[in-house]
Amino acid sequence: MQPYPGEVKPARTKDAERPGTGRQVLVLAGFLAASFVVAGLGSLATFNSVNGWYATADKAPWSPPNWIFGPVWTFLYTAMAVSAWLVWRKHAPGTPRALKVYGIQLALNLAWTPVFFGLYPAIGGAALWLALAIIVALIAAVAVAVLSFGPISRMAGLLLLPYVSWLVFAGTLNWWVALNN
């Protein structure tokens, strides 16, 4: 793939050679594990609520059926992990900062689900508005990640675009539920 204007090329020296295949596989597995730990923790917070308060909540008319969320999030968490791995393996000057942004968005992603689903029974509508604030911050963090990843690895930046798009859509669902419940 041809670099796009402004793409950072990794510095290659004897000390900065691309990691071996074994290390690359381990790091990819680590990024995948981190994504799916976040997914698993989120599903724990969601499990009781989807059949509890959320089942009877006033949802947006454009809300997809519940079964859509699992496959979509599986794809998105996988794409997130691969994206971070592509940036990590470039060893470009902006890599540490880009991966910090990735970590921030992953933490925000982890925070949203228990706030939205788990806190609602305890504090009511305030939880839904707090979740909306978190998802807006998450959208901003992923947008910064796209902008940070793109110059290092165009493919890494592109892999995050479905994620940011889904988050904007999810934000509209969150907004509706907060307004109407």
Automatic annotation (TrEMBL):
<dbReference type="InterPro" id="IPR004307">
    <property type="entry name" value="TspO_MBR"/>
</dbReference>
<feature type="transmembrane region" description="Helical">
    <location>
        <begin position="25"/>
        <end position="47"/>
    </location>
</feature>
<keyword id="KW-0812">Transmembrane</keyword>
<dbReference type="Pfam" id="PF03073">
    <property type="entry name" value="TspO_MBR"/>
</dbReference>
<feature type="transmembrane region" description="Helical">
    <location>
        <begin position="99"/>
        <end position="120"/>
    </location>
</feature>
<protein>
    <submittedName>
        <fullName>Benzodiazapine receptor</fullName>
    </submittedName>
</protein>
<keyword id="KW-1133">Transmembrane helix</keyword>
<feature type="transmembrane region" description="Helical">
    <location>
        <begin position="67"/>
        <end position="87"/>
    </location>
</feature>
<dbReference type="InterPro" id="IPR038330">
    <property type="entry name" value="TspO/MBR-related_sf"/>
</dbReference>
<comment type="similarity">
    <text>Belongs to the TspO/BZRP family.</text>
</comment>
<keyword id="KW-0675">Receptor</keyword>
<feature type="transmembrane region" description="Helical">
    <location>
        <begin position="156"/>
        <end position="177"/>
    </location>
</feature>
<keyword id="KW-0472">Membrane</keyword>
<feature type="transmembrane region" description="Helical">
    <location>
        <begin position="126"/>
        <end position="149"/>
    </location>
</feature>
